[in-house]
Amino acid sequence: MRTFALEPFLVAGLLAAGAAVSAGWTPAPARAFPAAAAEDRSAAAVESAGFTVSDLDKSVAFYSEVLGFRLLEEPTEIVGPELDRLRGVFGSRVRIARLALGEERIELTEYLVPRGKPFPDGSRGNDRWFQHFAIVVSDLDAAYAHLRAHRVEHASTGPQRLPAWNRNAGGIGAFYFRDPDGHFLELIQFPEGKGDPRWRRKAASAMPTDPKSLFLGIDHTAITASNTDASRAFYGNLLGLRLAGESENYGTEQEHLNHVFGARLRISGLRGAAGFGVELLEYLTPTDGRSLGDGPAPNDLAFGEITFSVPNLDAAERGLLASRARLVSPGIVTVPAGAAGSRRALLARDPDGHGVHLIERALH
User: Fold this and answer.
1) I need a labelling partner for 90 at 20 to 30 A (CA). Which of 15, 72, 166, 332 fits?
2) What is the rounded CA–CA span in Å between residue 203 and residue 23?
3) Rounded CA gap, 289 and 128, in Å?
């Protein structure tokens, strides 16, 4: 394990549309996020999705041994004032692991100190802190059997096949489950004509004798949205993500998938310059999803984030400030070279409190 003590920070001054899933509570008024000036605008790329975990070694074992992720490097331990300022958590020391499934990446973070709040009891898909990422599988029934053999916790009642009347999502198979800390995950299988064609190419080359080859990659990360228009304005106007597809999903299959009775969702798939998709999930009914105020703190287990790379972080910061978006960092933080995630970075929140981690990287 590598440990980095960070030097004093420098402040300078963010699909193919996937399947049906979950989110929502009482809709809030749409908030204006005006488009950035033309010279400041460049579409962000999705780098990864991440969760805060209670035991990094246990989580790495789950994701690698059960789901076939590969650990990209030994976990990194970070401490120092830049970390405090980037994450908005004073006196923090974290361990970070980066894992990949296919070409897609996730990031898991354990706070050694200070420990945050546990995952809220009774969490459902329409609660405000909901986030998952969708793992594409070559065979949903076989993948479900594999999870059952590992005694993975259900979130759905069982695998669901979305009905044919749903033009955009019909025929997609999906199942929700949970990781050791309670974070939601999804298995998803696309039929012919749905999803990115690369998933069918990968499925055709999967080895049926290797259970881990069932898991092909990540199609999207999904987050709750209390007001789709406000969230689309945030991700579109500030980060340049474009609308890739829309669907309205309801019925018994959707209820059993989300495990929310009466679930009716407005789903919007967004895509950036590169990387997997971002799905906005607005519950039209029921609207009783719970909130954690401004959102979970980064050291709370309910905290999830999406990391975006942008070619000009100063321009992204100007857009966030001009739109009065909520910043977690006091400004851009420079993390010294050699540290995990070493680059200029900024942490903000979207209109519903989800973590939006921006890093600066030239896009090709």
Assistant:
1) 72
2) 29
3) 6
Give 276-305 pLDDT, tens digit per residue. 999 999 999 999 989 888 889 999 999 999
Distances (CA, A) of 350 to 4, 304, 317, 318, 358: 29, 12, 13, 15, 12
Q: Name all domains of the chain by residue range, CATH numbers in brackets.
A: 2-27+35-360 (3.10.180.10)
Q: Are 361 and 351 in contact (CB under 8 A)?
A: no
pLDDT band at 213 (very low <50, low <70, confident <90, very high): confident
Q: Which of 295, 265, 266, 267 is nearest to 279 (CA)?
A: 267
Q: Rounded mean pLDDT of 157-170?
A: 92
pTM exceeds 0.85, yes or no: yes
Alpha-helical (H) ranges within the chain are 56-61, 81-87, 140-149, 197-204, 228-233, 252-258, 313-322
Q: Are 123 and 109 in contact (CB under 8 A)?
A: no
Distances (CA, A) of 157 to 248, 261, 284, 360: 21, 12, 21, 41
User: Could you write out the DSSP letters of every residue in 224-245?
Assistant: E-S-HHHHHHIIIIIT--EEEE
Q: Rounded to whole angstroms, how far apart are CA atoms 282 and 96?
A: 31
Residues 329, 85 contacting (CB under 8 angstroms): yes
Whether the CB-CB separation of 174 and 187 falls below 8 Å is answered with: yes
Q: Which residue has the tokens 């980037």?
A: 86
Q: Give the span between the Cα atoms of 190 and 208, in whole angstroms.
A: 18
Amino acid (1-letter code) at residue 192: E
Query: For position 27, what pLDDT does the model report?
Result: 38
Please tell me the distance from the alpha carbon of residue 339 to that of residue 305, in angstroms, as a whole number. Answer: 20
- Per-residue pLDDT band for 343 (boundaries 50, 70, 90) equals confident
**Residue the block writes with tokens 């979970």:** 296
Q: Is 251 left (phi over 0), alpha (psi -120 to 50) or beta?
A: left
Distance, CA of 251 to CA of 245 (rounded, Å): 20
Q: Could you count the other beta carbons within 10 Å of the beta carbon of residue 325?
A: 19
